Amino acid sequence: MNLAKEISFLLYKHNCVILPGFGAFLINEKPAERSAVAQYATPKQEVINFNRQITNNDGLVANHLSVRLQCSYEDGLKAVENYISELWVDLENKRNVEIAEVGTFYYTQESKLVFVPHFLVNFSRESYGLPKLRLKELSAKPTSITPLIAQKPVGIEPTQTNKVLAPEEVNDTQETKTVSSANRRRARQQATEAKKLAKQAKVTSQSPKKISNLTIINSLGSLFLLGIVAALLNFEMNLATSAALDSQVASLLDAPYLSLDSFETNPAVVTEEVNTTPMATIERHDSYRIYAQVESAQAAEQLKSELDAMYSDVSLETNEDGTSNVFVISFDSAELAKEYRSLLQNKMNHKLVIEQK
Predict the structure, then answer these.
(1) Average pLDDT, the chain
(2) Which string of DSSP letters, residue by residue, matches 262-307?
(3) Can you tell me the distance from the alpha carbon of 59 to that of 17, in angstroms, rounded to the nearest whole number?
(4) Model pLDDT for residues 304-332, shown as the tens digit of each residue
């Protein structure tokens, strides 16, 4: 049973989750940060650490499993023990194991357990889901101040007392007032239309700039997505290569020691004629080939027959001085070839050399 989700769920609620006999996951608080140089800000986080010294059983995981699976506490504890045993088997075979949404364990050659947490996972419930923010500098723009135009207060025209207007004068004043109000109304309409035309001209002048900005943003977003896809493909290829190398190293660690004493010789099978013609080898461009130097052709044949079960490209080459070289494996990288030779040398009594071809 895989308990990765259960461990991740418990870490959101508790500061310490113990796997009995294996170690404890601890939660540490990390305050919010702001970097003016890098121009980014991160929210409050709770990151995870692993302590190999805390192995006592506090019953947290087993009790949680008993409630979730509706079983007894003993069955939950047994499920935890089975999960821990599976972790050790994977570590001894593959040298690494990942716990989803928690981190990855690595088992070194010195039998040390190294834990690398997933830094993108934030276990803080207060800032859950808050991303890393980019900071931008804001520049203050001067605001245009429209001058206030003093208007003449509208007052009441003084009237002359004891003055009686004739009917014709009254009609003339009414007509002049009607004409003046119509002129003012017409002037207001013209001013409103002029403002509308000015706004439309401003919008049409700014629309090409907005369209060009949107085009630039879309192109940058497309390039960013292509970069992410390329990075993911490269990451998957690196994972596949590392997994293949881990499986080869694990199979090598499980293989027994190879020596001349472990082979049984049959004198009736050995003949005087020895085929000194080297076998055809596969040529590889810029490859680093590992050879085992053997003193006699008979021992070389026996070593080749033993290595055929583990390696597919094993071949035999005979030198002019009577010694023989047994080709074991080749690598494209010199560092990988050296590391593999050091591991293989501990399992073999013959001297191993690396030749670049």
Answers:
(1) 75
(2) GSPP-TTT--S----SPPP----TT-EEEEEEESSHHHHHHHHHHH
(3) 10
(4) 888 887 887 888 887 777 778 888 888 88
pTM of the model: 0.36
Residues with Cβ within 8 Å of 78's Cβ and at least 6 positions away in sequence, in order, are: none
- Provide the token pair at 112: 């040390």
What per-residue confidence (pLDDT) applies to 257? 43
Residue 263 CA to residue 157 CA, distance in Å, equals 132
For residue 224 the two structure tokens come to 């960013």
Q: State yes or no: pLDDT of 97 exceeds 60.
A: yes
Closest CA to 6 of 74, 71, 79, 72: 79
Count of residues for the chain?
Answer: 357
| pLDDT value at 106 more than 90 | yes
Both structure tokens of 75: 């069955």
Q: Where are the beta strands (DSSP E) in the chain?
A: 16-19, 23-30, 33-35, 40-42, 45-51, 96-99, 103-107, 113-117, 133-134, 288-294, 315-318, 324-331, 351-356
Given a cut of 60, is residue 259 above it in pLDDT?
A: no
Strands 33-35, 40-42: parallel, antiparallel or unpaired by DSSP? antiparallel
Coarse DSSP helix, strand, coil percentages of the chain, rounded to the nearest 5 percent? 45, 20, 40
- Compute, in degrees rounded to 10, the torsion defined by CA atoms 213, 215, 221, 225: -170
Instruction: Find, among 6, 12, 4, 5, the residue nearest to 62 by Cα.
Output: 6
Is 17 in contact with 9 (CB distance < 8 Å)? no
Could you identify the residue written with the tokens 């070389």?
300
* Domain residue ranges in the chain: 4-134, 260-356
CATH superfamily of the 260-356 domain: Sporulation related repeat (3.30.70.1070)
Q: Which residues contact 277 (CB under 8 A, 6 or more apart)?
A: 318
Backbone angles phi, psi at 230, to 5 degrees: -65, -40
Q: By three-state DSSP, how is residue 114 classified?
A: strand
Strand, helix or coil for residue 340: helix
What is the structure's pLDDT at 50? 92
At 120, list the tokens: 């993108």
